[in-house]
Amino acid sequence: MITGILVALPEELHTLTKIKIKQGECIAVAKNTIATLSGSGSENAQIAAQKLIAQGATQLISWGCAGALAPHLKAGDLIIPEHILTQDNNLITTHTEWSKQIAERLKNSLKYYTGTLLESNSVVALADAKNELYQTSQALAVDMESGAVARIAEQAQIPFIALRSIVDPANLDLPQAINHAMAKHGLVSIPKLLLYLCVHPSEIPRLIKLGLNFNAASKTLKHLAYQLPLISQNQ
Predict the structure, then answer these.
(1) From the CB of residue 108, how many other CB atoms can be counted at a distance below 10 Å?
(2) Burial (CB count <10 Å: 0-12, 13-18, 19+), residue 10
(3) Which residues does 54 contact at the CB level (< 8 Å), separation at least 6?
(4) How far is CA 114 from CA 38, 150, 177, 199, 222, in A?
């Protein structure tokens, strides 16, 4: 059994390994476990998931951060979704037994929530938009990659789960700098980010807040990373 882990952003990959890789590359992060840096978005995730399978992955994990839709979720809370609600309103069930095994192993060390994770084709930046999505979907959180990975796993008839840590609570408006600095290939351009902040310094406090939230999310993901050999065991 080889586990393939898809990570969208370099900062999320750093919770698994200190080794830097280019977008599309695969690297071993534990015994019988490989990871790839996909870049954000559904198209990038689809390509990366297919690459993991081509590299021998027989089960897939969507790993990284998510935005909260449910108002009770805080930065650093872990989501182990039972379902992925895709853009075309299709509900894909994750591998139930595998998810239950992980939840059982984490119950004494991490706070986690199960439920539905919503797929989005863009960053959901505003608190009002998050609240609207929560009211219509009742999904706990949202991300841009898990839906694509779930579809590829379903097509390949292999197990799939998502492990996502909350980075922005439902009441937080994301800095516009994030969308502005996102390059076409799905990675954040640091020069574009810095230039935007120079022109819009009022964005800096919210960016600092997001950075603190990301530290909380990263702490949760690093805790998971220490347990990768157990997490990868799907019995």
Answers:
(1) 6
(2) middle
(3) none
(4) 25, 16, 31, 41, 19
Ranges of residues in the chain with a pLDDT under 70 are 175-200, 202-204, 207-208, 235
Q: What's the confidence (pLDDT) of residue 165?
A: 97
CB atoms within 10 A of CB 223: 16
Pairing type for strands 83-85 and 33-37 reads: unpaired
Query: Tell me, what's the pLDDT at 233?
Result: 76
Beta strands in the chain (DSSP E): 3-7, 26-30, 33-37, 59-68, 78-79, 83-85, 91-93, 112-113, 116-119, 141-143, 160-168
How far is Cα 213 from Cα 91, in angstroms, rounded to an integer?
Answer: 29
Instruction: Set out the domains of the chain in order of their start, with CATH numbers.
Output: 3-174+218-231 (3.40.50.1580)
Two structure tokens written together for 1: 């059994």
Q: How many CA atoms lie within 13 A of 63 on its CB side?
A: 35
Scanning the structure block, which residue is given the tokens 């502005």?
180
